[in-house]
Design brief:
This protein is α+β, with helices and mostly antiparallel strands. The protein is built from 23 helices and 20 strands.
């Protein structure tokens, strides 16, 4: 009888299958006993409770050592649902917590709702209530033994020693599912920075959590520390932060901007440190602390004046005549003009079209053109630059755009705060697309030369230009944090940015800005004992009244402050931008406002441009 090869093959197949099953079984057994610690952890969870110890969040000081953000204790009612069960004394707990049964059921429902608490598990600690008062906390501690599975988690919440600077300081909020997924440090119920430095410096401020290991009996009740706490890990407090902000100046700036929509940014030119950064209207940062946070936040979101919108960083505005110094610098660098070059002004630029201007002498050279804010001068300079013989408008405008980027326009500067806007500087492709391939020239886009048209800038970018001119041709990236305890600030805030424009051309612009204060459009910027330099801006607004802007620095030599002011729908730059900017400089440099200028201070403090001009939509 012949050999059955089919049976022989089947024997090997069955043997191989059995071998594979055994190998899989052994691998799984190894994982369960050696690699996979989940069963061990589950067993330990019946005997131990690992209580998270939250670190104190880092404190925040202003540049003068004034404490502006500190911590206060807050208490959350926590429970492990499996340990608490469902037959505990609900009414007794409600009485201890001083809440109604309906409130308790609402908290219970929200705790188990996967939409509001995506990390819910009956086997892990869950937050039932937050922000317990000291009285309720004390009462609960006395009765806690009656409620197995419940415990109190101590946390820190923010307390503010100022009502100002909300856009800089930010706040903290409870983490969401995205935060937990993005960073394993967090778990449901934790808090994280939201807006301002609380967000951008979260990793420095939050510290490192600790853990306390407690023993449980067979009924799940806490019996004390495991091995007298030798395995506990203490929390590490967050790092303290010193701001570059002068909080007294910040508070003063917010007072000046009451009743107005806009922004103030002041920078120390030598360091790039932001001295104040006002966004108006604003809000009290303490509104976003405690049990009323959610309600207050909703109210701020719905406010038609948009107090949560940081106009200093996010407001993209036509810079108006504060833009003219950049044009003078480009024309000088490219040889389009010299300081002595003169252009005519027939109440404006007249060359196939007309761009209006106010009365002044004509023809006019660069420095008096800056002092009087002559539109015609910069329109003629722009035309001669863009329409240069031997080149094309596209090539020339590309050069123009590159210079603007070097000076800090068109892209985010990189301030150490979230949500900075880049503004807008068009490039040649933008216009080629706009004109659908048709030829275009300087006259087609002439309004760009005086900071109108498609050009948009943030108050921070305008202040940075003032700082660059004050330094005669360089700047540090603006930043609001001066020091961080036990570490150093990011090195990029110490790097110098040097545009390719020569230093002597910046000197010409600075002289023109000094002339504007001595006898030009910025006369109101002058105050005793300090040589102030300035440039007004009146930005046309298709939605209503013009915007009032100002850019300046002081003193003329060895400047200590550069400032930009932007007041929406407030008219001429000299009406609000100049007075507010000069008061900020005087307050910072001299500490007080001179008696002869008190009238100006009172007028700015008491004026309201919102009532007379409406609200600009963003």
């Amino acid at each position: 009888m012949g050999k059955d090869y089919t049976l022989e093959k089947r024997k090997y197949v069955i043997g191989g299958f059995i071998t594979l099953v055994v190998i899989i079984f052994l691998i799984r057994l190894f994982n369960l006993q050696v690699s996979d610690s989940s069963y061990k952890e589950n067993a330990e969870s019946n005997a131990f409770f690992r209580k998270v110890l939250y670190p104190a969040r880092g404190l925040v000081y202003d540049r003068n050592g004034r404490l502006v953000v500190l911590n206060q204790p807050a208490y959350d009612v926590m429970l492990i649902p499996k340990d608490a069960g469902t037959d505990f004394d609900t009414l007794g707990l409600c009485k201890v917590l001083n809440i109604s049964r309906e409130e308790f059921l609402r908290y219970w429902k929200e705790m188990k709702d996967p939409r509001k608490n995506p990390g819910y598990s009956a086997y892990t600690p869950q937050k039932l209530m937050s922000h317990l008062s000291q009285e309720d906390y004390g009462r609960l501690q006395e009765k806690l033994y009656l409620f197995p599975g419940f415990y109190v988690q101590k946390r820190n919440v923010r307390e503010y020693a100022t009502h100002s600077g909300a856009n800089i300081l930010g706040n903290i909020r409870e983490v969401n599912a995205a935060d937990v997924e993005r960073d394993r440090y967090y778990r449901s119920g934790d808090y994280t920075g939201d807006l301002g430095i609380e967000k951008s410096y979260e990793h420095h401020l939050r510290g490192v959590k600790g853990v306390e290991i407690l023993m449980k009996d067979a009924l799940g009740r806490i019996k004390g520390k495991y091995e007298d706490g030798i395995h506990d890990v203490p929390p590490v407090s967050g790092r303290d932060i010193t701001l570059s902000i002068d909080m007294d100046l910040q508070e003063y700036g917010e007072q000046l901007m009451q009743g107005k929509i806009g922004a103030i940014v002041a920078i120390e030119p030598a360091t790039g440190e932001i001295l104040c950064m006002v966004s108006s209207p604003t809000y009290d940062p303490s509104l976003l602390v405690g049990s009323e946070r959610g309600r207050n936040y909703t109210s701020l979101v719905k406010d038609r004046l948009k107090p949560l919108y940081d106009r200093a960083l996010q407001g993209a505005y036509p810079p108006g005549s504060t833009f003219k110094p950049t044009q003078g610098l480009i024309f000088l660098q490219e040889g389009t003009i010299t300081p002595a070059t003169m252009y005519p002004c027939y109440r404006g630029y007249v060359n196939g079209l007309r761009v209006g201007c106010h009365p002044h002498g004509s023809p006019i050279a660069l420095k008096p053109a800056i002092a009087t804010s002559c539109n015609a001068y910069f329109c003629w300079g722009f035309k001669n630059f863009v329409d240069r013989r031997g080149s094309t408008p596209t090539a020339q405008f590309e050069k123009w755009k590159n210079y603007m980027v070097e000076m800090g326009y068109g892209y985010r500067l990189g301030v150490d705060l979230p949500s900075e806007s880049r503004g807008f500087i068009p490039n040649p492709e933008y216009y080629s697309k706009s004109f659908r391939g048709r030829n275009w020239s300087a006259n087609s886009i002439i309004s760009v030369s005086i900071g109108q048209g498609e050009v948009l800038a943030t108050p921070l970018q305008i202040a940075n230009l003032a700082s660059t001119i004050a330094n005669r041709g360089w700047y540090h990236t603006p930043h609001v944090v001066k020091e961080i305890s036990d570490t150093v600030i990011d090195g990029r805030y110490r790097e110098k940015h040097v545009p390719s424009i020569k230093k002597e051309y910046y000197e010409q612009i600075a002289e023109g800005m000094r002339m504007a204060v001595i006898g030009g459009t910025c006369r109101l910027a002058s105050f005793s004992g300090v040589e102030v330099c300035g440039k007004t801006g009146t930005a046309q607004n298709p939605h209503g009244k013009d915007h009032s802007a100002f850019m300046g620095f002081a003193p003329y030599m060895n400047p200590r402050i550069a400032v930009a002011v932007y007041v929406e729908n407030a008219g001429f730059g000299a009406a609000y931008g100049v007075p507010i900017g000069s008061l900020i400089m005087e307050k910072y440099l001299k500490g007080t406002i001179a008696p002869e200028r008190k009238y100006l201070e009172e007028r700015m403090l008491n004026s309201n441009t919102i009532l007379t001009s409406g609200v600009k939509k963003h």
